[in-house]
Design a protein that fits this description.
The protein is 72% helix and 0% strand. It has helices at residues 3-17, 23-35, 38-47, 49-58. It has one domain.
Length: 67
């Protein structure tokens, strides 16, 4: 394995490590706050409750480690 390939492999593995396990709890809190806000009522009115739930599940909070 050459130097370039080694560095590329290292950068890829470093990116995978940057997402912290706290992201799941941030996502749950974020989704909970949206459900309790005015925007949730607007989403349900515009898309219906089932589609609004799907949209909300697509929203994910992600915490990354600083450099």
């Amino acid at each position: 394995m050459g130097k370039g390939k080694r560095l590329k492999y290292k950068r890829r593995s470093d990116k995978k490590k940057t997402v912290l396990p706290i992201s799941d709890s941030l996502t749950k809190n974020f989704q909970k706050q949206i459900r309790n806000s005015e925007i949730w009522d607007q989403m349900v009115e515009q898309f219906g409750e089932e589609r609004a739930e799907q949209i909300l599940k697509e929203c994910k909070a992600e915490a990354k480690a600083g450099d």
